[in-house]
Amino acid sequence: MDYVEVAFRVHPAHPGRDLLADALGEIGFESFVEEGEEHLLAYILASDFDEDRLNKLDFLQEAWLETSWSHKIIAGQNWNAAWESQFEPIAIDTRCRVRASFHPNDGAFDHDLVVDPKMAFGTGHHATTFQMLEQLLELDVDGKTVLDMGCGTGVLAILAAQRGATEVVAIDIDAWAYENTLENVARNLNRELVVLQGDVGHLGKRSFNVILANINKNVILSDLSSYAQHLAPNGDLLMSGFYEEDAQDLIQLAGPLGLQVVRQGVRNRWALLHLKKN
Predict the structure, then answer these.
(1) Which of 79, 105, 260, 270 has the smallest number of CB atoms closer than 10 Å to its CB?
(2) Which of the following CATH numbers is that of domain 127-277: 3.40.50.150, 3.30.43.10, 3.30.700.20, 3.30.470.10?
């Protein structure tokens, strides 16, 4: 099968690239790779590519967003090689490695996670996911309940389960993320997780010891009170998906909800917040 690679320049990159990827996913694009500060590569089957539909995509007409793009065909016999050349395993010292199924296993790591993404986000390559994995490795989740909100590929939920969490719920509003999480759970675990498609409204009255939210700032601002409601006393909330200059807005909102800052992290301008419930 032939694919089309569409190379976008997006300004501002945040939140432009993430929102653009969401919009492209709705019209059939399967995978994405971030390049440099403002560039995004998007891939779609050549048979599904519609240049006119792309030009008319509502999101590309947003007044605050500047975009330009070009495209090229990648012949089917070159697709796997092109994708694999862009997808290198990532490692957090010897504690955790995230790889695709075409990479060989490496017994040197405590956790060797196999993630074949429908989209490239959630593989650990992005600074937000890397920080979330890194901080999750510092938490004691053994015997605890964990919620992965906006699970993407499910990589955070899978790591939590491998580290001994007794119940893990992974939820995402996007169908591709729901399906991809189910696939990746099957690749990594000999037990099922609870995987849901939807938003915080699907959680009912459940309570969790740990909540992971690697989503964009606007979603977190909207849902932070719900996270606080579903977080057990003395529970931990890890959040990323926003720039360091946006962290203060979230901290100010968190205080009145009984959430106190334990740690702040930054990687390539992307921030992480570790909050604890009183």
Answers:
(1) 105
(2) 3.40.50.150
The residue ranges of every structural domain in the chain are 3-84, 127-277
Do residues 212 and 156 touch, judged by C-beta distance below 8 A?
yes
Query: Rounded to 5 degrees, what angle do the CA atoms 75, 124, 105 make?
Result: 75
pTM score of the predicted model: 0.76
The per-residue pLDDT for range 100-116, each reduced to its tens digit, is 888 888 889 999 999 98
Domain spanning 3-84: which CATH class is it, in words? alpha beta
Q: Is the pLDDT of residue 173 over 70?
A: yes
Confidence of residue 33 (pLDDT cuts 50, 70, 90): confident
Q: Are strands 31-35 and 231-243 parallel, antiparallel or unpaired?
A: unpaired
Query: How many Cβ atoms sit within 10 Å of the Cβ of residue 24?
Result: 23
CA distances from 75 to 70, 162, 241 (A): 17, 38, 34
Split at pLDDT 50, 70, 90, the class of 37 is: confident
- Please give the mean pLDDT across all residues of the chain: 90
With a CB cutoff of 8 Å and minimum separation 6, the contacts of 181 are 151, 152, 153, 154, 157, 170, 172, 193, 195
Q: 202-226: b or e for each residue (b if 16 or more CB lie within 10 Å)?
A: ebeeeebbbbbbbbbbebbeebbeb
